[in-house]
């Protein structure tokens, strides 16, 4: 009897370990589990102030900013706002940082890259030693937003779009994208708002598109096409992708449509998931016959 009891306990341990391993494999395609892991690794006291980021990023516009190999997003992450050409200032300690780069046509790549690396190092070191922004900011998506928060953001971006007609602009919506519905809002407007654009019609025949995350502002004539993905700056957080290749705007739509916790169709048909599910069924059907429920 003691031998049987020991064997049963040993089998129970093996089943737990096997089940945990399989669950880990199955959760690979589910971003909800990965977000929980990221949340645990991120200190709780470092919650990103997104509104402060938006305020800083709006300072990177002409005529004070003409583009640079240093991303405005990297600068904003460390609290640097643009005050004049090739010069940024910390919003907290008010230290200044020069962002000028040598003319790449007149110097070697080594010299150019050395100066670029120096600027990146100074994003942290140029702050005062007591500045709280010296360590940088946590990711924009510290945790996944709720469905209510996402829809609130979309509605705020659509607040000035009531006068916009369906034929005022043309946008291509991928066939595999499902969009939430709002009364009186077309799929075109919903799509661009989900991608972070607010749309206004300042005067007849003209539409204005703006993104608070990359400070991009574009004007188009009514009737023209608009690409809400490629018109973002390349570093815009709205088109960031997670470890599974899913952009943040698509993740938001999935949360609203309550499909976020389902296994993505990109993974559900893969061989690794089929094998994992088959292995778990095999364990459940085989070991359950020799392990009593009170041991699990």
From TrEMBL:
Record key words, sorted: Nucleus
Pfam name, any one: zf-C3HC
UniProt GO cellular component terms: nucleus
Keyword Iron in record: no
Subcellular localization, as worded in the UniProt entry: Nucleus
Cited InterPro entries: NuBaID_N
Chief location of this protein within or outside the cell: nucleus
Domain C3HC-type: 48-177
Gene Ontology molecular function, alphabetical: zinc ion binding
Protein name: C3HC-type domain-containing protein
The organism of origin for this protein: Caenorhabditis nigoni
């Amino acid at each position: 009897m003691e031998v049987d009891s020991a064997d049963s306990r040993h089998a129970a341990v093996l089943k737990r370990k096997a089940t945990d391993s399989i669950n880990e494999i199955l959760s690979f395609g589910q971003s909800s589990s990965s977000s929980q892991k990221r949340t645990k690794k991120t200190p709780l006291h470092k919650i990103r102030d997104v509104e402060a980021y938006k305020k800083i990023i709006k300072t990177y516009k002409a005529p004070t900013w003409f583009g640079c190999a240093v991303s405005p997003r990297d600068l904003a992450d460390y609290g640097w706002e643009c005050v004049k050409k090739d010069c940024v200032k910390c919003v907290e300690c008010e230290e200044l940082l020069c962002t000028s780069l040598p003319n790449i046509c007149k110097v070697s790549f080594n010299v150019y890259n050395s100066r670029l690396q120096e600027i990146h190092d100074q994003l942290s070191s140029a702050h005062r030693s007591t500045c709280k922004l010296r360590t940088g900011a946590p990711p924009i998506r510290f945790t996944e937003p709720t469905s209510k928060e996402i829809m609130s953001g979309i509605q705020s971006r659509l607040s000035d779009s009531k006068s916009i007609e369906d034929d005022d602009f043309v946008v291509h919506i991928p066939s595999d994208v499902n969009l939430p519905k709002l009364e009186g809002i077309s799929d075109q407007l919903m799509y661009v708002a989900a991608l972070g654009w607010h749309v206004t019609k300042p005067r007849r025949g003209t539409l204005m598109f703006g993104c608070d995350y990359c400070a991009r502002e574009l004007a188009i004539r009514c009737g023209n096409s608009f690409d809400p993905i490629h018109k973002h700056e390349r570093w815009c957080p709205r088109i960031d992708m997670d470890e599974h290749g899913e952009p943040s705007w698509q993740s938001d739509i999935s949360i609203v449509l309550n499909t976020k916790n389902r296994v993505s169709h990109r993974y559900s048909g893969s061989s690794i998931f089929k094998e994992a599910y088959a292995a778990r069924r095999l364990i459940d059907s085989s070991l359950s016959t020799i392990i009593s429920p009170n041991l699990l």
